[in-house]
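Standup notes
- DV: blocked on the single-chain target, sequence here:
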Amino acid sequence: MSLDLPRTEPRSVNPAADEVRQRLEHARTTRLAQLKALDDTGQNPGDHLMSNQKDAIKRVLTEIDEAFARVEDGTYGTCLGCSKSVPPERLEILPHTRYCVACQSRAA
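- DV (later): unblocked, structure below
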């Protein structure tokens, strides 16, 4: 018997976490595609709009990575501002959010 079998990822015992990871992965893939499309169009040195769009996408990608870390450490879905649960509807729409609506509006 060969020991060179492909490794399989351990099956998660938390299906909700798997669903969150899928949503986050979809968000990341979408943002990476947007960034690639912007890169493929080329950029003039004076094109501040495109530069701002790229910066915004990169910020969201960072937020997505941070959300993956919160899933792993068990704090995903908890508002970083007030420590209350972020409503599931908000997480479904914006899976990488760090704040509930009230704390987000205070931060803005």
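- Follow-up: DSSP finds four helices and no strands in the chain.
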